[in-house]
């Protein structure tokens, strides 16, 4: 998770105490970067949609950060809520009606479990979208920018091994996974009539063709 201290799971990252430790991921810190990447791809876009789950405890923080990031880029941010599959469909239809030229998907358990559905909906509405997860791009989404899951799981596995060797979780500082990946789907970009600039492709960790 993003902030185990804020959720009361550990006393601090350096000294978790109790019987819990693990790996925390950069979530909110890299959220604004997704908007910047879309802006680099679509510099003339002025209205960008953000899909947020109101049931997420960090929904208010995500909304504030989206507005702040959009203001810095001179963009109007259209925030819509979705907490069910049907509401996701409705939100994308509304984005299209309100002329949002791109959509940012925030990190949320509901959205993360429906990445293929989200990629299909974005394609159906011909809306460029970016997600935190690579699976979104593998399913036909345009771009993803987020924590490397293999790196996250590798760190977790290392801690699992140490705990199985009888180290105490309370003595193991919560690790922070900081390796991020940019994935671009050129096939989807072509279908949307977009040309991905070389400056963006040059920074991509993976290009799907």
What does this protein look like?
It is globular, with a radius of gyration of 18 Å. The protein has a single domain, classed as 3-Layer(aba) Sandwich (Rossmann fold), CATH 3.40.50. The protein has nine helices and nine strands. Helix 6 (134-138) links the parallel strand 5 and strand 6 (143-147). The protein is α/β, with parallel strands linked by helices. A seven-stranded mixed beta sheet has the order 3-2-4-5-6-8-9, sandwiched between helices. It has helices spanning 31-41, 59-72, 85-97, 109-112, 115-124, 134-138, 149-164, 186-191, 198-201, and strands at residues 23-25, 47-52, 76-81, 102-105, 129-131, 143-147, 175-177, 180-185, 206-208. The chain is 40% helix and 19% strand.
Quick one: biggest sheet? 7 strands, mixed
Can you tell me the CATH class? Alpha Beta
For this structure, the CATH topology is: Rossmann fold
Order of helices and strands: EHEHEHEHHEHEHEEHHE
Structural class by sheet pairing and helices: alpha/beta
């Amino acid at each position: 998770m993003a902030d185990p201290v804020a959720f009361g799971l550990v006393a601090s990252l350096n000294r978790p105490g109790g019987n819990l430790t693990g790996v925390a991921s950069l979530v909110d810190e890299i959220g604004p970067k997704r908007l910047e990447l879309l802006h680099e791809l679509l510099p003339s876009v002025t209205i960008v949609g953000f899909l947020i789950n109101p049931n997420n405890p960090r929904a208010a923080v995500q909304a504030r950060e989206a507005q702040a990031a959009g203001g810095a880029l001179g963009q109007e941010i259209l925030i819509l809520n979705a907490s069910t599959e049907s509401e996701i469909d409705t939100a994308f239809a509304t984005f299209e009606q309100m002329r949002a030229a791109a959509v940012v998907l925030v990190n949320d358990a509901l959205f993360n479990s429906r990445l293929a559905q989200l990629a299909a909906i974005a394609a159906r509405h011909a809306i460029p979208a970016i997600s935190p997860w690579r699976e979104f791009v593998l399913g036909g989404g345009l771009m993803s920018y987020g924590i490397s899951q293999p790196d996250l799981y590798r760190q977790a596995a290392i801690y699992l091994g140490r705990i199985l060797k009888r180290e105490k979780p309370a003595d193991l500082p919560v690790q922070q996974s900081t390796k991020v990946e940019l994935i671009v789907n050129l096939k989807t970009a072509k279908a949307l009539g977009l040309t991905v600039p070389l400056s963006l492709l040059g920074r991509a960790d993976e290009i799907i063709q």
